[in-house]
Amino acid sequence: MSWLKFITLAIIICLLSWMAGVAYGIYKFPKKIMAEGYERHLKIAGAPWKFHHMNDLVDANFKKVVRPSVDFLYSSAVLDARDGSYVLSIPKIDRYFVFQFMEDDTDVFDYVGSRQYGKNKKLDILIVPNNYDGPDYGLPVVQLKTERVWLLARYQLFNHEDLNNVQAIQDQVELTPISLFLDDAT
Fold first, then answer.
1. Whether the Cβ atoms of residue 27 and residue 20 lie closer than 8 Å to each other
2. What is the DSSP string of 69-123?
3. 173 within domain boundaries
4. CA gap 1, 108 in Å, rounded
5. What is the CATH number of the domain that holds 152?
6. What's the number of domains the chain is made of?
7. Domain, as residue range, for 164
8. What would the pLDDT profile of 141-186 be if each residue is shown by its tens digit?
């Protein structure tokens, strides 16, 4: 084999190895970020299925995640499908809101919000594991796609004076195990 063929083959092997490494990194990076976020959320909220409400306004200097909008307040929770079914209870909200469900690779696979259900309606949404084959109890259903899911809620903020109103909305949002929800309903 000539040196030229050897060098060409070595370069091709190096490029293919580099491309495989980049592709692997692109695949693994979102899962790594979600895993770190899951653990960070557990430290703040104390457990899965517990909301952490961001009650303060953010500005352009906020860089913990992709820059959020300054016209919203946020809440988040991490959901663990191994814990079974839960109900997301949302009070009547007089403004735009959305709850996004993200897989462990950051893809949004479902949402609940004012565009879908309208404003000023109390909502109860059944959240079930991917393999769930039980009753829906007459509730809209969100089926989790992965074992761990990040739930991110956004509530529209009209102005700085509206902050207390949105905080009151955040305090009324609940995640309840289906068994407790059904006990409370009877």
1. no
2. PTTEEEEEEEEEGGG--EEEEE---SS-EEEEEE-TTS-EEEEEEHHHH-SS--E
3. yes
4. 52
5. 2.60.40.1610
6. 1
7. 52-185
8. 999 998 989 999 999 999 889 999 999 999 999 999 999 999 887 6
